[in-house]
Amino acid sequence: MSLSLTVLGCDGSYPGPGGACSGYLVQGGGVNVWLDAGSGTLGNLQRHLDLRQVDAVVLSHEHPDHWMDLEGFAVARTYVVGGGAVPVYAPVGLRAHLYFDPPDVYDWREIGDGDRVGVGALTLSFRRTDHGPETLAVRVDGVGSSVGYSADSGPAWSLEALGPGLDLALCEATYLRDDEGRAQHMSARQAGTSGREAGVGRLVLTHRWPTVAAEASREEGSTAFGSELELARPGAAFVVGPGGRPGEMA
């Protein structure tokens, strides 16, 4: 089974001009998973599917740049498109931050470190990262293909925690080496090192602050990774598993 991952937003902490915060669409085996729902991702999600086709939502943590568009999604599903309750997998406590939480839209399912859940043909595994509130990285496995997502994390955590054999990994790289230690995030160098140590097939850097130069991030990360890596950008799509070589841009 092939897995596809489409970037809906990748700006770190706040959206830059014309950008969007963290959000991704993971698809495989006929299943559509909205992974993080940062500001601006709801609009981009609708470029790829009808909102009634979302089978599950996964939220990594309670920082608003990773879930704020859940509010608009609830309005759309309640008053406009319908579609019934959607499973939402999120750490304990995130739900309390919502303003609009209709029970006929969201079926909340709390998750924590070490949990595994099935969403149709996909298996999702969660590991806590090195970030302020409880933050969960996720591994998505189909038959013969796998994708990892670091969510937000400082350098004390590694992609190795998601297990071996990742065909594609998204790793946060908020800033560059000169800013290491400024916040509980990773630099491009640290992200590249994490990907190399984890032996991922293809590494994609995401969650870059809008003020950080893209090519500087790519160069620093690639040097640490040991080969050329990709930078996430809205609309970029990657296919792994049968039908596409690891990290192939669709």
Question: What would you say this structure looks like, in words?
Answer:
This protein is an alpha/beta fold and 250 residues long. The chain has one domain: Metallo-beta-lactamase, Chain A (4-Layer Sandwich), CATH 3.60.15.10. The chain is built from four helices and 15 strands. Helix 4 links the parallel strand 12 and strand 13. The radius of gyration is 17 Å and the shape is globular. Mean pLDDT is 96; it is low at 245-250.
Brief rundown of the structure:
This protein has four helices and 15 strands. It has 250 residues and is α/β, with parallel strands linked by helices. The strands form two sheets. Strands 6-5-4-3-2-1-14-15 form an eight-stranded mixed β-sheet. A seven-stranded mixed β-sheet has the order 7-8-9-10-11-12-13, covered by helices on one side.
| CATH homologous superfamily assignment | Ribonuclease Z/Hydroxyacylglutathione hydrolase-like
CATH class: Alpha Beta
The share of residues in extended strands comes to 25-35%
CATH-assigned fold name: Metallo-beta-lactamase, Chain A
Query: H/E order of the elements?
Result: EEEHEHEEEEEEEHEHEEE
Uncertain spans, ≥5 residues at pLDDT below 50? 245-250
> What is the CATH architecture term?
4-Layer Sandwich
User: Distance N terminus to C terminus?
Assistant: 16 Å
Strands, count:
15
- The class by helix and strand makeup works out as alpha/beta
Our count of domains comes out at 1
Strand neighbour order, sheet with most strands: 6-5-4-3-2-1-14-15
Provide mean pLDDT, rounded.
96
**Overall outline:** globular
Describe the sheet with the most strands: 8 strands, mixed
**Rg, nearest Å:** 17 Å
Number of H/I helices: 4
Query: What share of residues is helical?
Result: 10-25%
